[in-house]
Each structure stands twice: as C-alpha cells, then as structure tokens.
Write a structure and sequence with these properties.
The protein has about 220 residues and is of the alpha/beta class. The protein is about 55% helix and about 15% strand. β3 (about 65) and β4 form a beta hairpin. α1 (about 15-25) packs across α9. The structure holds cytidine-5'-monophosphate.
Length: about 220
C-alpha cells in the first residue's frame, strides 16, 4: 500500500509522515532528502547547479541510498549535511531540473515496488504515485509554518527573524507551485488536512485513522 503526503514546507509533513510510517509498520520515503542529496553532491564536486545536463549526469552517477533515517551518497552518511542552509537554498535548482525529477521519480517507484510505504514530498500523489491508495495534502497558515520553522532552528541554536523566514517561505512556495513539472498541488483525490491548529499527535492520529478506515 502507498500513502502519499504532499504539501508546503512547514506544514508538518516530515515528522507526521515518519511517525505515521512507524505506527503503520510501513517504510518511510523522504523524497525531499533525495533532492537535497543531489544538491549536496553537486556542491561538493563543484558541479554548477545551473547546468541542467551536468546535474543530471551527476544525479545518475552518484549512489543514493535511503536507509532508515539515514541518507547515504556513495556510502557516505550525509544526513546532517543535507539539512544545511546552503543545501536548503540551492535545492531549488535541482527541483526545477526536469530530467533529474524524472530520474528521482523512477528511483521513488523502485523503492516502493511491492512494499508498504508512506512517501512524503511535493508531487507524490500527483506524479510519482497517481494510483496511491491514500493521499494527503497537508497545509497550515503561513505564519504558523514560519513560527514552527523558527522554533526548529532555535532548537539548533540559530535565531532567525520571523519576517525573514516568512519571506523565504513565500519564495519557496511560489517556486514549488509554479514549476513546470512536479508542481506542488493537491491531487484531485487527496484529502487536504489543515494542521494550523492541531498538535503533531492529533495530525498523526487523524492520518492513521483515515488509512486504517480505508483498509478496513
Ligand atoms: O521537503 P524538503 O524541504 O526537504 O525539500 C527539499 C527540496 O526539494 C525543496 O526545494 C523542494 O521543493 C524539493 N522537492 C521537490 N519534490 C519533492 C520533494 C522535495 O521538488 N517530491
């Protein structure tokens, strides 16, 4: 069974998707980590992110593995590195690269083949798994999303002004919802869940209930 969870950054997708997968005993696929890993790899090798062919070649030649919570590139654990500010900011070039998107979608389908998976990203219910049995699209108020991000960064010792985070978030949302392929949008058959006024546990409870009801 495939459960897809899409939506903008800060809507609480990642943690909710991970916890949902644990509760259901499903594998978890963090597709944002794949775009981040390609970005990190190119940055390390000095491959210009603005050169689509070079980035595609790099993506095809690197060995990308998602093992539990860890992300490995050519056997090297990059789980922490791919969350850096530099990678977050520059991943937009990889996300806008149609050839890389097609390749990563292929890897995502291979990963899910014959398995029970909760997969999380922007285009999972629309492009990667249009026939998924259960689809969610998580949303939240922009201000609430930026506040969550601010708290998350404060937990890592980084103090960033809310206005700055709001502005970055707006830019990312615009890019995600305007790109040609893999556009961030809810699939017609996705359930839209507004997490603004829900705790993480409430979100996971709700998602789990829907999945279990659907399977019953
Ligand atoms: O979700 P996360 O912040 O880790 O995503 C990293 C980057 O990958 C973002 O630029 C996002 O737009 C992109 N992405 C994507 N398609 C996905 C998942 C993430 O384009 N399925």
């Amino acid at each position: 069974m495939i459960v897809t969870i899409d939506g903008p950054a800060g809507a609480g997708k990642s943690t909710a998707a991970r916890r949902l997968a644990e509760r259901l005993g499903f594998l978890f696929l963090d597709t944002g980590a794949m775009y981040r890993a390609v970005t990190w790899h190119c940055q390390q090798r000095g491959i210009p992110l603005t050169d689509p062919n070079a980035v595609e070649q790099a993506a095809r030649s690197m060995r990308l593995e998602l093992v539990g919570h860890r992300v490995l590139v050519d056997g090297h654990d990059v789980s922490a590195e791919i969350r850096s500010r530099e990678v977050t900011q520059e991943s937009r070039y990889v996300a806008a690269n149609n050839a890389v998107r097609a390749f990563l979608v292929e890897l995502q389908r291979q990963f899910a083949e014959g398995r029970d998976v909760v997969t999380e990203g922007r285009d999972q219910g629309t492009v990667a798994f249009p026939h998924a049995e259960c689809k969610f699209f998580l949303v939240a108020d922009p201000r609430e999303r930026a506040l969550r991000r601010q708290r998350e960064l404060a937990g890592k010792g980084q103090q960033i002004a809310l206005e700055e985070l709001l502005e970055q978030q707006t830019q990312r949302d615009e890019r995600d919802s305007q790109r040609e392929f893999g556009t961030m949008r809810a699939a017609a058959d996705a359930r839209v869940v507004d997490t603004s006024r829900l705790t993480l546990d409430e979100v996971v409870d709700h998602l789990e209930q829907v999945v279990r009801d659907g399977r019953a």
